[in-house]
Amino acid sequence: MTKGFTMKQMLEICGITEDAVRYYEKIGLLPPVERKPNGHRLYSLADKETLLSIKCFKKIGMTLDEIKLFHKLQNADDTAMSKEVSLQLQNYQLKIKDQQQQLQQIWDLIETKLQSGHKVGIRTN
């Protein structure tokens, strides 16, 4: 039998819920998983990487349908598809860069307020 990860191990490694993993299997984001003789799921390294990528893409705002399309495009042997994947990733990089800049502005404001001892710029009257 192939060595792999149990459901419990996968949940701990990936930081997602059992319901999420089962749902990803159900909708085809995660391919059918190998089973032990007792019926328990046995996840591969590829399954782990897939789950971690799903988690990452969700964090940047991709919907599950977008992630599914992205995985389909990524696995295609078509140069045009590869270019589409690259364009999508570049667009998400730009989105993340913008979010970083916005978060840095918030960080700087908080840092300034903490260092100066002044109240945050909210007036009540």
Task: Please describe the topology of this protein.
Layout (H helix, E strand, L loop, with lengths): L6 H8 L3 H10 L6 E2 L5 E2 L2 H15 L4 H12 L3 H38 L9
Antiparallel strand pairs: 1-2
Task: Describe the fold and architecture.
This protein is mainly α and 125 residues long. The protein has two domains: 62 residues, Multidrug-efflux Transporter Regulator, Chain: A, Domain 2 (Orthogonal Bundle), CATH 1.10.1660; 50 residues. Strands 1-2 form a two-stranded antiparallel sheet. Helix content is 66%, strand content 3%. It has five helices and two strands; from the N terminus they run H-H-E-E-H-H-H. The model has no long low-confidence stretch (mean pLDDT 86).
How far apart are the termini? 71 Å
Strand content: under 5%
- Sum up the overall morphology in one term: flat
**Individual helix count:** 5
Percentage of residues assigned to helices:
55-70%
Count of the separate structural domains = 2
CATH class of the largest domain: Mainly Alpha
CATH architectural name of the largest domain: Orthogonal Bundle
How many beta-strand segments? 2
Keyphrases for this structure?
125 residues; mainly alpha; Multidrug-efflux Transporter Regulator, Chain: A, Domain 2; two-stranded antiparallel sheet
Please sum up the structure shown:
The protein has 5 helices and 2 strands.
